[in-house]
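HUMAN: Would you supply a protein with fold tokens?

ASSISTANT:
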Amino acid sequence: MKKNKNKEFFLFRAKFIFGLQVLISALTTFALYRLNLLPMKYFGIVVALIVVLLLLVGLMLLKSKKNGVINTGKILSLILSLAMILGTKYVFDGNSFLKKITGADKDVHLISVIVMEDSSYKKFDDVKNLEFAANTGFDKEGIAKAQELIKKEFKTDVKTVDYKTYDQLADSLYTGKSQVMLLSEAHRGLIKESHEDFDQKTRVIATVQYDEDSNVKKRDVNVKQETFSIFITGIDTYGPVSTVARSDVNMIMTVNPRQRQVLLTSIPRDYHVKLASKGAYDKLTHSGIYGPMESVNTLENLLDIEIDYYLKVNFSSVERIVDALGGVEVNSFYTFSVGGYSYQKGMNHMNGPMALRFVRERKTLPNGDSDRGRHQQELIKGIINKAASPAIITNFNSILDSVSDSIITSMPDNELRTLIKMQVDNPASWDVQTAQLKGTGAYSKTTYSMPGWNLYVMEPDFNSVNNATKLIHDMENNKVIKSNNDN
């Protein structure tokens, strides 16, 4: 019994409590150093503050011991240690987040086992003895890989019934001719060209996946001094954000760190472009089927520019991001109502669901997809402005939870940290300009991904293309630009 009392007494000794504070202070300092987001002057201030607090607490402990009074230094030391533990957790969370989302160099190919929504089949074992409908005409490699992976994971051979087009494949499931299908998630959007309700009518009961190198170009960019461009691709699909899929949002963000200017160049998803690796024309949205670097290389050729990185966002996460920020202020170019939400021309305060509906809408807007692109630019502006406010600190955990599985970039970890450190060192606002590539609506039966289909495309207006190219080149030459985007 006496031993337990002595042990308890030891845990509350001044030396033990102070030693604990020293240890936690060292851990906090190390965590901040490893995070590498604070400029040296601020890092020095933080370290100096930690040392001063240690000295003050040490003096209080020594003084209280000599005077024989209640040791308030112990209480203060424990409070400071607890505060530093919480702060260190934030630091480690931020560090893990940055490592997770940067340096993307793999494309995930996800193949789903799909049944009708009202089907009684719930898991793979329920369908393993059935014949699987599959489009081997267009996705021979993906289906063969899926069969190989299913055999390895589920210990069974899958027999397929082959279809040459995606409308025939979907029809076979809808009519009950087939009970189950194999589908590469990259091609889900191709089915939705003819069956818009495919997501609502069907259900995924199993998946297999494999990775491929993205073939990311290694750029040697000094992001503190040189203008650089990032291709922002927005997907809205089942599976991880690294999954290869159609690109519903296509934007180039060009950043001039010296002039503190950003140019957002929006490209319509239906733009009729020559795919870089195929040498054939297709809709820009379909380029994402072949990986984000296909989109990057295609747009580099179109605009005669270099794109240094890509940033991939699952747009279904927009709702969570906006709510985590406590809502955002977004400019609308029109007054309109859709999906139970009303938007006024000018600034609107939007919560997550309202913002997501806003950036998806195109049918009620005068210029369709072009106006949707402009509204997407406005939402990005709103998110940037709110993220630069104290909301980014007060909602830190919520924001990390919202985006950690919904965003990846090919930008290396050290370069992103350099950018953040630069902003911390100089928190001045950025001048955000916008540009919009224009075009004329047309139809094509010769798109590479869906030959024979009479698909809507947008033929490029090369005046707008050349204007965007000039703006980007001017930024690369360290000129201050004015986009004069009068759409």
Q: What stands out?
A: The domain at 228-476 is CATH 3.40.630.190 (Aminopeptidase). The two ends are 82 Å apart (CA to CA). The CA atoms of residues 20 and 81 lie 8 Å apart. The longest strand covers residues 202-213.
